[in-house]
Amino acid sequence: MSPDRWEDFGNIFRGGHQPLPHAWADVFGPLCKGTVDDLVIVGQIGQSLDGRIATESGHSKYINGPAGLVHLHRLRALVDAVVVGVGTAIADDPLLTVRRCAGPQPARVVIDPKGRLGPSARMFADNGARRLQIVEQGACCAPPSGVEILALPACDGQLAPSAILAALAGCGMRRILIEGGANTVSRFLSAGCLDRLHVMVAPIILGSGGPGLALPSLERADQAQRMPMRVHKVGDDVLFDCDLSAQRVALGIARKST
User: Fold this and answer.
1) With left for phi above 0 and alpha for psi between -120 and 50, is residue 180 left, alpha or beta?
2) What are the pLDDT digits (tens) for 144-195?
3) Is residue 10 helix, strand or coil?
4) Whole-angstrom Cα distance, residue 215 to residue 45?
5) Is the full-model pTM beyond 0.90?
6) How many C-beta atoms surround the C-beta of residue 208 within 10 A?
């Protein structure tokens, strides 16, 4: 196998038994194994220099350049499941498939407490990968044949990120990508449910529009948490790979110290 071929790297990465080729290890190596437990949860957002993920009208295709989009598809190819909130699923009608690189198709998951997503949603299309709709207990929904329903208890109409991840872990999923939208990624971040956050910044300024993250406010700037971070040039974009493992709550089987 060639260490410079993406498909060969993906096979080694998923196998987990060989050292990772250096060509890709700097960017994707931290996603190979969890440091807190046996899960690895990565959030990703693509945004402008001024922190916007869409224009004021909601248009967002495409803020990031071609290389940034390939990076997103590579993330999809390395995880067991890709997760979006129902707002993003309705507004963007994403496929959530791997198309810009080689690799297997992950399970596609929508967080949809009220069962709002219609059966014609493109993420529900049957391409052989698992499809899951996470709803609150008692919600009425009629997904297409083959779509699995996970019903969880809700609090004020919201499903706890930790409960969502525990349910997905119970389905055998260990490496999980929280892809969007901004509210969903923000909720997982606030709940301490991310190991890494990939922020892909494009060299554009939108001026106004949807923010990349929406988090509780702080009174003072020095209250903000600083975190270890790696920076990578990805085509014309810049990837900020943020290490959030220090604040990640335990969700799966605890990682044994060596």
Assistant:
1) left
2) 999 999 999 998 889 999 999 999 999 999 999 999 899 999 999 999 999 9
3) helix
4) 14
5) yes
6) 9
Sequential DSSP letters for 158-192:
B--HHHHHHHHHHTT--EEEEEE-HHHHHHHHHTT
Tokens read off for 255? 């990682």
Token pair, residue 193, equals 């449910």
CA gap 240, 249 in Å, rounded: 22
CB of 240 within 8 A of CB of 202? no
Cis amide leading into 181 (omega within 30) = yes
Task: Please state, in angstroms and rounded to a whole number, the distance separating the CA atoms of residues 147 and 56.
Answer: 34
The count of other CB atoms within 10 Å of the CB of residue 235 is 16
| Alpha carbons 243 and 81: distance in angstroms, whole number | 20
Tell me the CA distances in angstroms from 185 to 32, 181, 198, one per residue in order.
Answer: 20, 6, 11
Task: Please give the full DSSP string across 35-97, using - where no structure is assigned.
Answer: SSBS-EEEEEEEE-TTSBSS-TT---TTSS-HHHHHHHHHHHHHSSEEEEEHHHHHHH-----
Distance CA 172, CA 146 (A): 17
Quick one: which of 211, 212, 210, 215 has its CA closest to 190?
215
Q: What is the dihedral of CA 38, 40, 41, 42, to 10 degrees?
A: 170
- Beta bridge partners of residue 122, listed in sequence order: none
Burial of 54 (0-12, 13-18, 19+ CB in 10 A): buried
